[in-house]
Specification:
Layout: H1 6-9, H2 15-18, E1 23-27, H3 31-44, E2 47-52, E3 55-57, H4 62-66, E4 74-81, E5 84-92, E6 95-100, H5 107-115
Antiparallel strand pairs: 1-6, 2-3, 2-4, 4-5, 5-6
Length: 120
């Protein structure tokens, strides 16, 4: 998205309009897609933390993450850059569900960071 400009998308980044933690969803995914995201985070060396029921545990492979007990609250936090948190919830293999804190992505620098055009 090389042409995405703050002035064109500022309403989408407004916590008052969108909520501070809007949900994102990539539908039509598979276990392999989840594993690709895990591998991407590892290959970039981004900080991350995985927890089940509030207890930090070692990050599993995607297949194991997606086959845990249904009543387990699993949360995978990823920091692609300092001050920028993406929280993933592995509800099901068929969608990658996540949220970002819009308060961390203000201005053109935030848009650029979200789009991967440069890092802080």
């Amino acid at each position: 998205m090389p042409d995405l400009l703050w002035d064109d998308v500022r309403n989408f980044f407004d916590p008052g309009l969108m909520g501070s933690l809007p949900d994102g969803r990539v539908a039509g995914t598979s276990v392999e897609d989840w594993q690709a995201v895990l591998d991407l985070v590892r290959s970039h060396g981004w900080s991350c933390e995985y927890s089940e029921d509030g207890v930090a545990v070692r990050l599993p492979r995607a297949a194991d993450m997606l086959t845990r007990r249904e009543d387990t609250d699993a949360l995978w936090k990823v920091w692609p850059a300092a001050g920028f948190l993406v929280s993933f919830r592995a509800y099901e293999a068929s969608s990658i569900d996540f949220d970002v804190d819009l308060r961390e992505l203000l201005g053109q620098d935030g848009v650029d960071l979200l789009c991967g055009r440069h890092s802080r």
